[in-house]
Amino acid sequence: MEPLILLEELTKNYDGKVLALDRVSLQVYPGEWVAVMGASGSGKSTLLNMIAALDRPTSGSVWVNGEDVLSLSEEERARFRREKVGLIFQHFYLIPYLTALENVMLAQYFHSMADREEAAQAVHEVGLEQRMSHYPSELSGGEQQRVCIARALINQPKILLADEPTGNLDAENEEIVIAIFRRLHRAGLTLLFVTHDPQIGTQADRIVELEHGRILPTFPAKALRSI
Amino acid sequence: MSEMTRRIFFGSLRRRRGRVVVAICAIALGASLVVAALNLRYGIKERLARELRSYGANLVLVPRTEPFLKERDLVILEDKRLKDRIIGYAPFIHKVAKVDGKDVVLVGARFSQLSKISQWWQIEGRWPEKENEALIGSNAASKLGLRLGDRFSAVHKISQLSLSVTGLLRTGGAEEHQVLVRLETLQRLTLLDGFLTSILVSSPAGKELEETVAILQRAWPRAEARTLLQVARAEEALLARLEIFLTLVSLLILTAAGLSVYATMSTAALERKVEMALMRALGGEERRVAWIFASEALGMGLIGGILGCAAGLLLSEIIGLSVFGSFIFPSLLSLPIGLALGVGISLFCSLWAVRRILALQPAVVLRGE
Ligand SMILES: Nc1ncnc2c1ncn2[C@@H]1O[C@H](COP(=O)(O)OP(=O)(O)OP(=O)(O)O)[C@@H](O)[C@H]1O
Ligand SMILES: [Mg+2]
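Structure tokens for the assembled complex are given below, as produced in the milestone run.
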């Protein structure tokens, strides 16, 4: 099977000083759920940004879904982002003057055409059908993050990339969000997400641990669980 | 505009309405002064040109020192030295009287002579023929609430005169504010039989005109002869000064408007930084996202420009009426210029903010903190 994400010798050097990624190679297969862990500053967000075509590495290569991401022009990268990946951030980043539903429609708007019905269906799937026309300021943190998940999924991406999606949530909301991830994983979506929490990490198929920009030898999460 | 485009546009505008309203007002103010200046310039110039072209009369005779001219001195104009220099003339007497309690200028005229030198006048109805008939300027008619065929009475001191309206008058000049009756009628009402306040004279234009003035001056020392061109020149000079003033003030206000837009959009660049980075991360192209941002400036410019055009038209009419005593025919060119100015200034002063949005690195902005 072809890997969906293929990173080779990926290096990111900020301003020639901070070596955020140091010759990282990684393969993620379709349907896999990978947890990226590591201390603060170990390069987790940087890694995610490379895969999402939000940032360019200093050297190395990034292949996603058979596309050489680094060879893409700025416009093609925008197209890549809206078609291939769904992004979720720790800080929810919703547009304050758009309703929950409209925030989801925003991703459609850049993709092709806003479709109210389809967006409503996506909001329904994250259990927020009662909150569609609320503004972000009227939603709890957990609800806001669920809107972000609906927004990330609306264009049917190949990969869901999440940077500490539960970092700002309490235990209850964390459980709701993780349950959604489990469901998506079962449905066959490829998930790559960053977390600090080993409890959450163990739910993934595999943990990738970063230290000072390098990947530590990998091991299956299931092995960790059995310890 | 798609539904989402509209929601984003108005959503952001409403959220930042305080600053946006200030910027719109500044743009509208600046644009209105420019539109008013342009309108006055074209409107008054056009009117002056039209009057000069169509004035049968190009000279006016007024008393030099005494309050009146004597009607019997009109024979001077029939003198053979002047006869072939004068195409036609019309004597007048002006007096303020009360109609319905309101002050209005009554003008006594010899209609048979007046009609020859005022062929461009537009009359709805007909020239008066009888003793108690009157021709009413269109402004006076609306001020007094009179229509064709109406009867009314004019009071001067203890005398009273009843009149009927035979015609409504449009000239683009002061006559629109006056009520015209027969010369003898007004002389009798005001007990000024045989007296005149002015005489309009039509004579061949060009170099000859100056000679005619000199001859008139010698032949009729009690009268002062002025060319109407001088009157028009005085108005033109007034217009030029007004124009300089309006231009300076509008430059100042446009600068202020530009600064206001600059401040608003720079603040917007900060406030909407995360929003714009997010749109990029969601797959919006740089240029499309920059346009979403710039559309706010475009909107402010358009709204400010439109309001400015409307206010400018109004302002030029107010100035036209109060300073030049006539309506200004709106110059259609001033509207696109006002609008373009509003939009242009707004977009120009947003360039810096837009460049900041274009330079955003979504990965850096969305790192949070
Ligand atoms: N734009 C940038 N310019 C300079 N240095 C940067 C930039 N972005 C990240 N870094 C540095 O690169 C290193 C890796 O950063 P990164 O954000 O990937 O860490 P992280 O593992 O996501 O940390 P955290 O858990 O705190 O989010 C850090 O030392 C950080 O200071
Ligand atoms: Mg991070």
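Chain B has two domains: 3-50+237-366, 59-227. The first strand of chain B starts at residue 59 and ends at 63. Further analysis is deferred to the final report.
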